[in-house]
Amino acid sequence: MFYNVENFFDLENNPDINDDDYTPTGANRWNRNRFIQKRNNIYKTIIAASKGQVPQIIGLCEVENRYVLRQLTEQTPLSKYEYGIVHYDSPDRRGIDVALLYRKDAFDVIGSKAYKAPLITRDILYVKGKTNDNDTLHFFVNHLPSKWGGAASEESRILVIKLLKQLVDSIFNENTDANICIMGDFNDYPDSKSIKVLESKPLHTNEGNGYLYNMSLHLQDDKQGSIKFQNKWELIDLFFVSGNLLFNKTGLNCSAGSIEIFKADFLLETVTGEGNAPKRTYRGPAYIGGFSDHLPVILTFLK
Questions:
Q1: Is residue 234 over pLDDT 90?
Q2: CB 254 within 8 A of CB 241
């Protein structure tokens, strides 16, 4: 599962980052009750999206620190699933990071690293581990620079994706059969210029292992989206997998039908003139106690 949870901040004012709005005296009047509501909303979304099979791996972005992750995994009913946390503080000016949660009963982390992008933004989070069936998996969790800034912001995203491509290539150079899963908020569409840097293939092609395949492309073709911007659904929360995960018939595998955007009614609200849209924590300056401006994306592997 990947979910941009939108501004999951604690209550403390950290002088090293721009988190002033998310403090009790800040513009958003971020207090304990609102924090708990946010935390519990994320938990409810994870449980509902799992449809009885609580995710073994969860990629998150827009989390402030390990404290908020521990609140989610230890102070909600998620605690009974004993999630481990992989998180590093990034140099992002707002202090929002990416993280990976994993069920300790299903996945054993071998190693992890936060790769610094060549500009001030979120890190690329890399996690390597093994499943109970001894399958080795490589995960990358991403949150690329936003579209604010036009062409300059696109170049920033290209710089980050070039680094991601180098990291993937280094794994393929050692093992073309590697199981790689990339997820994240790319702030670009499955067919954007920046995404093409990954050189991922459409699902209908079968060029074998040693390549990435774009799991999200056909969702965009079906006009599905994970956010709504200017009254239009857009898909920017993406998944990519290596060929071995797509075409392997004896080990872990997935297919075009393995990916879905979770669009439960409780995650949506009706906005005048826009129709259904994700129900956010704030609509403008008004607190409405919603969930996120993104919808979660689920990718299911079979064996």
A1: yes
A2: yes
